Amino acid sequence: MPIQRRPKPASPDEFIKGANLTESVLQHQIEVLEQQLQQKDGHEQALVGEIEQLRSNDLDETERQLLKKQIDELREHLKQNQGSVEYPVADIHPNPKQTRQTFKEEVEAMEQSLQKEGQLDDVMLFDDGTLFDGECRWRAATNLNWKTIKAVFVSRPENDQTLRRRTYLANRHRRDLNALDKAASLVAIVCDEISELKPDEISRIVNRVLTRLKRRKQKLGDRLHLQPQEQQRAILTQFELEPVEIQVFLILLGLQEHPATLNRNVFPTLSLTADLKVAVREKALGCAQALVLNRLTAENLGLSEQKALQLRSEGIEITLANNLSEIKAQQWVAEQKKQLVEDDPATQSNGARDEQVDHILVAVQRLNINRTAISMKQRQELKQALERVLQML
């Protein structure tokens, strides 16, 4: 099948070319055509607006289905008004503002779908061949050595910052991003809007504010990210935050993300070692398991960087091969630390280790207190219990 390029949109000049009309009739025909073109463009923009409105909210299953329907309607509208074209796969390039960087499993599934059923939905491109929607389809087609892929075209947003934000919301609601992709994208969005901030400052600002509030026994409220922006601003102002802190929090809240949840479950992935980040994105290692394996650093273990890297590599392979849960991964890491201690001559010189104490150590290491809602009273009781155990040793 010959390669087709994007058809040129109809214009008033082409419409009247060669027509033998009086000036008044000619002007009328031009006005009619321009109105038709504006109506088509208006319908497209209305659909885009409805889609963006849906993307900006937390969606239940019914709303997710509505979002999918609106995107399908936009795709069909574009096909009807400009036609679907066979576009060269090699001329397509990914969106540099793409939120999602982990595609392995979805691309493999898409390859099977393309081979079995063919391409069901067109990819959406900007005029220069940059992807707006359909990266998994494009990656799968590339892997299958397809020469062309069906495509329709949409207008590019007014700036890259808007594009990054819309791409984030699209991925957030249509399929969950993993924590690493989410963290990297959120940092980029904040830096887009506050250019003077460096990427590594974002998570530190969030952690600093939350630590300060905790010390003052103040809370943001569990549903702050669902409140109108003016109410969010009013609440943040009450906490006497610095202007840049308020700005960072408002950006995150405006993306329907709660800073406390990000600080607990998302931003920690930014500290993953380079090899673990690669494993998450290219080998589908879970972020929770990656954070557990991230404890196997040279500094924590008293090993060389090379040996720590080898131990993490072993952990990655074992976790993936055995589909280890987060708890199982914690157990494996605890066993490695225990083995290292037992193999340490300095430790052995202190005499035999007590097996019961080792069991207690492993049990304590398995605790994930940061993800548990613990009252102040319970914290105090836990502290006293541990102190009593230490006194008995």
Task: Write out key terms for the chains shown.
64% helix; 4% strand; 19 helices; mainly alpha; 4-stranded mixed sheet; 3 domains; Conserved hypothetical protein from pyrococcus furiosus pfu- 392566-001, ParB domain; 393 residues
Q: Overview of this structure, please?
A:
With about 400 residues, this protein is mainly alpha-helical. The protein has three domains: about 10-160, Conserved hypothetical protein from pyrococcus furiosus pfu- 392566-001, ParB domain (Alpha-Beta Complex); about 180-270, no CATH class; about 355-393. Helices cover about 65% and strands about 5% of the residues. It has 19 helices and four strands. The chain has a four-stranded mixed β-sheet. α6 (about 160-175) packs antiparallel against α7 (about 180-195) and α9 packs antiparallel against α10. The longest helix has about 35 residues, at about 25-55. The model is unreliable at about 5-30 and about 345-350 (pLDDT under 50).
Summarize the structure.
This protein is mostly helical and 393 residues long. The protein is built from 19 helices and four strands. Helix 7 (179-193) packs across helix 8 and helix 16 (326-343) runs antiparallel to helix 18 (355-366).
Number of helices: 19
Rounded radius of gyration (Å): 28 Å
Going by CATH, the architecture of the largest domain would be: Alpha-Beta Complex
- Series of H and E elements: HHHEHEEHEHHHHHHHHHHHHHH
Helix-residue proportion: 55-70%
The CATH superfamily of the largest domain is known as Conserved hypothetical protein from pyrococcus furiosus pfu- 392566-001, ParB domain
Write down the overall mean pLDDT.
76
Low-confidence stretches: 7-30, 347-351
In total, the number of domains comes to 3
Total strand segments? 4
